[in-house]
Amino acid sequence: MEDVSDYDVYVIGGGPAGSSAAWYLADQGINVALIDRGKPIGSKNVSGGVLWGHDLKVLDEEWWKKAPIERAIISKKIGLLTEDKAMLFDWDFEEWGHEPYVGFSILRAKFDRWLAKRAQEAGADIYEGIAVDKLWIEKGEVKGIVQAGDKFKSKAVIVADGANSRILINSGLLTKPFSQNDFYLGIKEVLTLPEETIEERFGLNSEEGTAFEFILGGLPKNIVAGGFLYTNKRSLSLGVVVDLDTLPLGIHSYDVFEYYKQHPKIKRLIKDAKEEEYAAHFVPKGGLHMMPPLFGNGYVVVGDAAALCFSNGLVINGNGPAIRSGIEAAKVVSEAIKIGDTSSKFLSKYATSLKSTYVLENLIRFKNVEKFKDNPRIYSTYTPFILNFSEKLLREENKPREHLVKLLKQELKEAGINSIKAAIDLSGVRYL
Amino acid sequence: MSNKTFKIAVLIKQVPIPSKMRATKEGLMDRSVASMMNPYCKHALEAALELKDTIGEEKTEIWVISMGPPNFEQSLREALSMGADHAILLSDRKLAGSDTYATAKALGTLIQKLGVNFNIVFAGLQTIDGDTAHVGPQVAERLGIPHVSYVEKIDFKGDHVVVRRILEGGNITYKVPLPALLTITNTANKPRGPRLKYAIRAKNEEIKVYSVDDIGLTAEEVGSAGSPTLVYRVKNVTHDRPPCQFMEGETVEDKVNMLAEKLRELVEASKAEAVEA
Ligand SMILES: Cc1cc2nc3c(=O)[nH]c(=O)nc-3n(C[C@H](O)[C@H](O)[C@H](O)COP(=O)(O)OP(=O)(O)OC[C@H]3O[C@@H](n4cnc5c(N)ncnc54)[C@H](O)[C@@H]3O)c2cc1C
Which residue's CA is the closest to the ligand 1 atom numbered 38? Predict the structure, then answer.
């Protein structure tokens, strides 16, 4: 099979990154194949939740009118939870409910299939249910791909196989191996609920949606975890993101999910909803330190495979960077093919152009954000403290009350919190 | 024309995805819903592919043959991308409503018409939409070759095969002269996925479509007209939710005890019902 060259470009992985890249290339008249191990495409993808921004505009000016979006996000809620307490900041932004919308809830199984179909309509060939082994490399140059031991020659390959990229690992293209430390585990459930119930319960009009993120405090032993809840048209996406590194022996990520799901606040929000789908998936913590080389002779890396996912504890945005990096890579690759130069030198333009977008800019600007969001004391000490303290502050028992500052001092002392350390920890907010 | 001396036919059918299965007003299977290759047929194809691996790719040729509406092409292409070499579809409105007798007649005639002297024919044990398990054996009768159903193991011995047929509570081993037809169980093997090499080839492969005229049959011999089976009545059985009860309890022991208790109640209830009746 050597030297058969059916395609100019192989795109490995049909998530948002790969499909966007294939769509762009096909639009440019490049002979491209998109290969995904799921069948149908997207079936293995953990239907994330919110797609923020309009990176798809490059491919279709009015993409959201055609895409299977669920609801336009018009409000955002950020909360703290401990075992029996909850506190919520609640923002409504009317302008988010109009063009040019800010974000949409999506169900990945549907959305990914649509995106791949658009790539196909543009002229890309789609191969489903096929897992690629690795890249075909000779003398430091990527010649194509290897599947089931067969080699397939191409001019360039776009690696878009998602978090913890097996393709990069199997091809020996990581300068530093990934470690468990580099990922969170996301667990997510889709729960069905009638449209009217969702709108009534969350105070939404039709087509409008909301997004919750929670800091999960009060879990045993300094576990770092967050929860989310997004409204879809007829379902809720509910899930947790857990720092596996902080899980003590005997406690599993699904225990954390149960803790979250059983919380009285969450229980009320998901009352009567029926479980429909359950999935778990890695989420790259993101950040420059875990980023593999973004390009080399004959290949580029996009999306989660390149660890371009952004999260700061208040928002998780991996879909946008996936799409944007897919498009930026495709721009450079299509140019490279047209002039006949797919060398590392030429493809480095991809990294340069990515630096001028929010994708890398954010990762650079927020490179210290994990000092705050991955600080266990935020979860195990301060969150419970804030909730306990506010409970005391707000409780009215018709007894003499303490002044705020005195109460605060008392409570800090009782909770054994060192206020200097706390001040330092909380000053980590500046990384946000 | 080709030096592929060992020729294998695989009969495959496309079926509705189980969750989407429903009957039309006329009592026939609704074929407009999302569908997939019948799982048993996939095992039959895998058996053929394994045989091809045994005998050698250069010497073997696999033909996948199906009868059904044009959208059955989906499963034929899937078979090609798993490693089959040729795909044939018998498709004609006149075939609508065929029972197993008419189907086997059409398929048997088609196979003869192809003029390929197949060394072996594989079929799935049964389909998950019809569940009869009749078509394979009837095709064998039409072709005048021996058949073994419920096959879960095949040893190729050149001019014959040794096969294991499962039975309730045991199995029988047969020595079968070739050509023969075997229907394959779902315990026989683990079907492989598509392979890029074949999938790329499958994209451009022509699927040859035959009509009833092409194989020299008439409308009276196939379809409802050619089917001795009469459908008396079709009933759609639906319930909102499978009757499901969860056993609650602190420990596994609690749950098991509760389950045992529930089962006992059920047994008592049905005994009481029987007495009443
Ligand atoms: C629980 C959870 C919640 C999330 N919530 C959000 C959110 O609300 N908003 C947001 O923006 N982001 C969210 N994310 C992150 C977001 O899902 C990812 O950043 C995004 O999916 C990355 O896209 P991608 O195309 O790079 O990779 P993926 O979507 O992972 O796609 C990779 C594709 O490659 C295929 N593949 C893998 N290996 C192979 C192979 N060897 N051969 C062929 N194909 C292969 C896979 O089948 C898959 O289709 C969430 C993630 C999780 C896990």
Answer: A161
Distance CA B64, CA B80 (A): 8
A377 Cβ neighbours under 8 A, 6+ residues apart:
A222, A422, A425
Atom of ligand 1 nearest to the CA of A321: 19
Domain CATH for B100: 3.40.50.620
Residue B205 lies in a domain: yes
Interface of B with A in 168-207 (CB under 8 A): 193-197, 199-200, 203
Instruction: Give domain status of residue B49, yes or no.
Output: yes
Render pLDDT for A372-411 as a digit per residue (tens, 0 to 9). Answer: 778 888 888 889 899 888 888 888 888 888 888 888 888 8
Which residue intervals of A270-403 are DSSP H helices? 319-339, 344-355, 358-365, 369-373, 376-377, 383-394
User: CA A236, A237, A243, A247 torsion: positive or negative?
Assistant: positive
In a domain, B236, yes or no: no
ipTM of the complex model: 0.86
How do residues B235-246 score in pLDDT, each as one tens digit? 777 777 666 777
- CB atoms < 10 A from the CB of B13, how many? 23
Q: Which pairing describes strands A125-127 and A103-106: parallel, antiparallel, or unpaired?
A: unpaired
Whether residues B272 and B216 share a domain: the answer is no
When CB atoms are compared, the residue of A125, A130, A150 closest to B193 is A130
CA of A103 to the centre of ligand 1 (A): 18
What is the pTM assigned to this prediction?
Answer: 0.87
* Subunit contact A148:B195, Cβ cutoff 8 A: yes
Is there a domain that residue B163 lies in? Answer: yes
Q: Measured in whole angstroms, how far is the alpha carbon of residue A13 from the centre of its chain?
A: 16
Lowest mean per-residue pLDDT among A14-18, A357-361, B121-125? A357-361
What distance in Å separates the CA atoms of residue A89 and residue A424, rounded to the nearest whole number?
Answer: 23
Q: How many residues does chain A have?
A: 432
